[in-house]
Amino acid sequence: MIRKTGILGGTFDPVHLGHLALADAAGELCGLDEILLVPAALPPHKQNRTINTFSDRVSMLEIAVKSRHKLSVSTIEQLLPIPSFTIETLQYLKLHSPVDVQFYFISGADTFLDILSWKNCELLLEECHFAVFSRVGESTIKLIQFIEELGFKKDATNCWEHPVSSKKIYHANPKLPNISSSMVRMRIAKTKSVKGLIPQGVANFIRDNSLYVS
Fold first, then answer.
1. Which H/E stretch holds residue 95?
2. What is the distance, to the nearest Å, from the Cα of residue 56 to the centroid of all Cα atoms in its chain?
């Protein structure tokens, strides 16, 4: 039996309820058996910003997924060269996973529209499926055109398949919390409440370790 595994990468500085809602939405959209939250050791697009330590970001993620049986944290990017590139993470996961695993990379629409700038993007599109999410009210015309320009053909409602690789791109625009990590950091720095933005256990960890304070 093939195990369907989602990959949700990010800086997670800190993890928030929007991340968890996105993971849940991907699990439902693609029928995933598990979802790996993969914190980047050093994202290539954030090398000019100071980010919190890898160990603290992992600790916050582990607190956030503790009661969610389909979600788990993978620290593999700590083992890979930095900066962290998605294709290298995927290839490492494939190499160290059972042969009956199919991977689904979870992405926001704005991030996916920039995929041609990613390292070895053609290979990435050939090696895993994608679950792409638009914001509620966001136009999907540009995204659909882009998916078709990549050579994917409409297979079913909200699903496109590549005729050669047979890889699929799933799309949905569920109502997700409008939260960003930068918003959380800013509110903490200004001593404002983050209730309803991050899990309470994560808020406790941030408070106990004096993270994101000026």
1. helix 86-95
2. 18
What are the helix (H) ranges across the chain?
17-30, 54-64, 86-95, 109-112, 121-127, 141-149, 181-189, 200-208
The secondary element (H helix, E strand) that includes residue 4 is: strand 3-10
- What's the whole-number mean pLDDT along residues 98-122? 94
Cα 125 from chain centre:
16
Say if CB 57 and CB 14 are below 8 A apart.
yes
Domains belonging to the chain, first-starting first, are 3-177 (3.40.50.620)
**Full-prediction pTM beyond 0.85?**
yes
Cβ–Cβ contacts within 10 Å for residue 39, how many? 28
Give residue-wise pLDDT tens across range 34-79.
999 999 987 655 555 678 999 999 999 999 999 899 999 999 998 8
Backbone phi, then psi, for 39, in 5-degree steps?
A: -70, 135
Closest of 81, 73, 10, 16 to residue 46, by C-alpha: 10
